[in-house]
Amino acid sequence: MDQFYQQLINGIVLGGIYALIAVGYTMVYGIIQLINFAHGEIFMLGAYFAFTLVNFTPIPFWVAIFVSMLFCAGVGMLMDYVAYRPLRNAPRLSALITAIGVSIGLQNLARILWGAKPQTFTDDTLPTIFQQISPMKEPKVFFSIFGVTFTDAAIQFSENVSLAYLDLTIIVLAIILMVSLNRLVSLTKIGKAMRACAQNRIAANLMGVRTNQVIAITFAIGSALGAVAGVMVGVRDNIGPTMGLHKGVAAFAAAVLGGIGNITGAMVGGLLMGLAEVFGAGYIDPMIATICHTIGLGEFYDSEKISHSYGSGYRIAISYIVMIIVILIRPTGLFGKASAHRA
Amino acid sequence: MRKWFIVILLLSLVTVWGCQPPDKNTEADPQGDTQGDQSELFVGVAGPFTGTAAAFGEMIQRGAELKAKEINEAGGINGRKLILSFGDDAGTDKEAKLIATRFATDKRILAVVGHFNSSCSLAGKDIYKENGIVALSPGSTNVSVCEGSDWTFRNLYRDDFQGTFIARYIKTKLTEYPSVAVLFDNDDYGRGLRDAFTAEAKKIELNMVASEAYDRENTDFTAQLTSIKGKNPDIIFISGLYGEAALIVRQARRLGIKALFFGADGVDSPDFLKNAGASADGTYLTTPFTFGAGGEGASKVAAAFEAEFGVAPDTWAALTYDAMGMIAEAIEKTYNKDAELAINRKAIRDHLASLDTPEEGYKGITGLTYFDINGDTVDKPAYVKVVKDGMFTTAPIQMTD
Amino acid sequence: MQILDKVKNFIFKAKNFVFKAKNFVSKLQENITPKTLVLCLLLCIFPLLTYGTDAIASLFSNFNIFLPIPSGDYLIYISIQVCVYILLAVGLNIVCGYTGLLDLGYVGFYLIGGYTAGLLMRHAGVSYWFVVPIAILNGALWGLIRGAPTLKLTGDYFAIVTFGFAEILFRIVKNEIWLIRDINGFVKEIPRATIFGLELNKNWQHYYHILILTAVVIFVSYRLEHSRIGRAWIAIREDEQAAASMGINISKYKSLAFAISAAMGALGGAFLAQFWGNLSAKAFEFWESILILCMVILGGKGSIKGSILGAIIIGSLSEVLRIVLQQFPPDFAGSRYLIFGIVLVLLMRFRPAGLIFKKT
């Protein structure tokens, strides 16, 4: 059971990251029906920018995240202004090609600027609780309450279930940002304008909404959230020019799974994709083993005639299978409304 | 108006880039030069300089550049300047084929160092063979890269030896750690190494409790690590490359896994230490050579590399450096300026093929290299290193048999 | 009497056929302008031209003068690659252009064709000419399999399912070692196609081979576009509900589009398997689908000419950039794909509806 809880935590952390990226896709899609393929690259730029700041300036980490958000918001708006705005009235798929072009361009620009080698935040640039944990040292216990022990390494729920402070931060950040985004869209004036644009851009414009401004702000918010995800992935894993490729596509799938254009959908979709991936990797093999043993193929299984790493080998594919099944059952995603959009 | 805008934009881009100073004339394109000069010798270098494997391509390019620079500073090969022509295969079969065709049909390129990805080496194999030009790979590990072609060689050894070596080392020398789990890269390097390891583990009855795969495009390995943690192994063998190994070690420590980590030569890189930080402490790994302890030559090259490019070299930079050296040596010994291209190319091949005994072998910074009948490198001896306080140190117990 | 009727009927049919054929030929004659004739001739003697330049270059190289022109084999290799992309783009255009569905997983069919052909030729020793129809049928079958559950999906939901489908196929090829018989989807030493015992292993032979295949695919696609089927597809694209109410069987025509498009992709894959001689999973990554999609949209959705033009531009752009950039300082060579991206953005910026588009 410990293992299950641990996998649950892993899945939620990964899901939180996917959700933060997916929101960027879904917001842009909701307003201009564009699959912004370059969003994965914004995510990558956010990580690189924070990395450069903490390494070459005395700016502390937390401020660097904030600056990186602002920077990515700027990049997002610039991207909209330079690449997408001229295509506003063109066929919908033309802007998709532009987005792919921007994505290839930014990815290679990053490679030229920062080098191809993946880099990581070193310990001296990070807050103490994010630093690497040496296996040689016994963790220092701060205090424990209701059986939950807080050490300098992680929060221990039991002997085998732990949550690192970094992962906790990712979850908390994701929740805070999502809730505030939800409030922003449903309560403020700009949120209202966004929803109006999503419903009917021309009508909104006629009613006095400055649509181009609203679209620019949408790009800015989506990019800022992407930047946060980028920095957190950079700290947790590493930063490379191609980091946006895989995560970006998975997050896009999450956005579609939730019903593209719907912010709540993106959050739930992201979480679902993360959980599917982690539980797939963790539980497919034991399942196959159990099935083989119960139907009398135990010897066949043990003889290694078949691969014993189905779960981990098909890890990302499992989340796509879940996504396909959900979409086939609900053809407009989990929270999507039926729409007449065509390619 | 719009057309002019494009033209001006493109022109300005070209000028901005064109104004940058050329890079120390270690490279030039043979097809770009109109003035052919027999005092120059051309060698092609193919690797993934862009795309998802670009990190390795970068090191290959630098290793080759450093060697060419050293050769040219020492007066070139028999007084002729060595010029490298770089071909980017982007890590894809498609472009590898194109680059192979380009190099093989070029009238001046004598030999090729490349490719990195096994799939790219396999893609180019037939083309090099048909056109009769040597391809010396510094990074392709798949078993059949060299089989069936006289023209392909590689100077890194096959995975079988190391996998076997590590299994035996764990069984005989690390007796206080009885159970092992394997976490392998779902690619040819990781799988080959893991297959050799498991085969030997079965033979010597090493207790293997889990075997999990991961994909290189992923950066999150917590799910696999949690499954492994459930089996409670004493040692986790990472059958993969240093980039992912660093992430695995970090994520494992965050999950509270205390097991010992063991890696092969793919993990042997200064970047592993840099990226894994304190988490890397106590990690064991095997290596064919050590920049610190592998002789004076190796450390001198490492210092020169760092002075030139600002980063420490990794295994592939060193292997490319040696591959370049081997090709240069072959050209030095065989080049005949009056002979036709095909004859010169053949002479290089024959020279490389003649390096088939330890006495004949090429002594480079990665140790002694000599080839078997296929063009595969015969096993180089392996050393065991251990990470201590953020440094690689030679492990207290070595295995010498 | 009945026999007489039958004979009459037959004569009538034959006359009708001759008439149709005459009509077709005269139509063809109308369409053949000097421009197209020159183009066809150029395409046909292209290998001759490249080998000519090769001969000239080698003549000069005897005097130690090296002309800055790429070698003939290299140029032909690029042309073969471009031809394969034309074939794929025209195939994808059927789903993307005619029925108007966004397909992000076309590479899946390319993969199926490639592996069907590669595995059968390598491990079962089947001749290439038998393998091609098998690969086409297998591709069409998988097109139907993928199509059946997705008939009701629209827009991006369809797109993401197709993407997921291709990704799963990619993982299967990478992981199922018992099926592929090697790791990483490697199929090695696939035999080449043979005609009367003659092995087609020269680049110019491959060139004519793919030229014929591409011509067939373009012809089929052209005839389909101007038939009842093509009109039905376009009706579905313009308004699915209106088309249904006019009596068009949506499921039937959509499935047909999926099957034909998939079959063309598989044909491309089968050619690729024997042309390359070895396959690896890496050649069928997600990015390849995107590239083919770019060709279709860049050229102008729903237009065969557009798909061809798009495939020529995008299929050769990275190599053209390589040749051009090598004339500049080496630092510039690394920015090949940066410029690739900028060119895509600029092309779309100035021709937002595609290079060749039809007004509807």
How would you spell out the order of helices and strands of chain A?
HHHHEEEEHHHHHHHHH
Order of helices and strands of chain C: HHHHHHHEEHHHHHHHH
Q: Identify the overall geometry of chain A.
A: globular
Principal-axes geometry of chain C comes out as globular
Helix content of chain C: over 70%
Mean pLDDT of chain C: 89
User: Can you tell me the number of structural domains of chain A?
Assistant: 1
The overall number of domains of chain C is: 1
Q: What is the second-level CATH architecture of chain C?
A: Orthogonal Bundle
Low-confidence stretches of chain C: none
From the alpha carbons, calculate the radius of gyration of chain A and give it in angstroms: 22 Å
For the biggest sheet of chain C, the summary is:
2 strands, antiparallel
Distance between the termini of chain C: 52 Å
Q: What is the count of DSSP helices of chain C, taking H or I runs of 4+ residues? A: 15
Strand order of the largest sheet of chain C: 1-2
Tell me which oligomeric state these chains represent: heterotrimer
Class inferred from helices and paired strands of chain A: mainly alpha
Helix content estimate of chain A: 55-70%
CATH architecture of chain A: Orthogonal Bundle
Helix and strand layout, with pairings?
The complex is a heterotrimer of chains A (343), B (401) and C (360).
Chain A: H1 2-32, H2 39-56, H3 61-84, H4 92-114, E1 141-145, E2 148-151, E3 154-156, E4 162-164, H5 165-187, H6 189-199, H7 201-206, H8 211-236, H9 243-258, H10 263-294, H11 298-302, H12 310-313, H13 315-329
Antiparallel strand pairs in A: 1-2, 2-3, 3-4
Helix pairs in contact in A: 1-5, 1-8, 1-9, 1-10, 2-3, 2-4, 2-8, 2-9, 3-8, 5-6, 5-8, 6-8, 9-10, 9-13, 10-13
Chain B: H1 2-18, E1 40-47, H2 54-73, E2 81-88, H3 93-104, E3 109-113, H4 118-131, E4 134-137, E5 152-154, H5 159-173, E6 179-185, H6 188-203, E7 207-214, H7 222-231, E8 235-239, H8 242-254, E9 260-263, H9 270-276, E10 284-287, H10 296-309, H11 315-334, H12 341-354, E11 362-364, E12 367-369, E13 383-388, E14 391-394
Parallel strand pairs in B: 1-2, 1-3, 3-4, 4-5, 6-7, 6-8, 8-9, 9-10
Antiparallel strand pairs in B: 10-13, 11-12, 13-14
Helix pairs in contact in B: 2-11, 3-4, 5-6, 8-9, 11-12
Chain C: H1 2-31, H2 34-61, H3 72-98, H4 107-124, H5 128-150, H6 155-175, H7 177-180, E1 194-195, E2 198-199, H8 203-225, H9 228-238, H10 240-245, H11 250-276, H12 286-299, H13 304-325, H14 330-333, H15 336-350
Antiparallel strand pairs in C: 1-2
Helix pairs in contact in C: 2-3, 3-8, 3-11, 3-12, 3-13, 4-5, 4-6, 4-11, 5-11, 8-11, 9-11, 12-13, 13-15
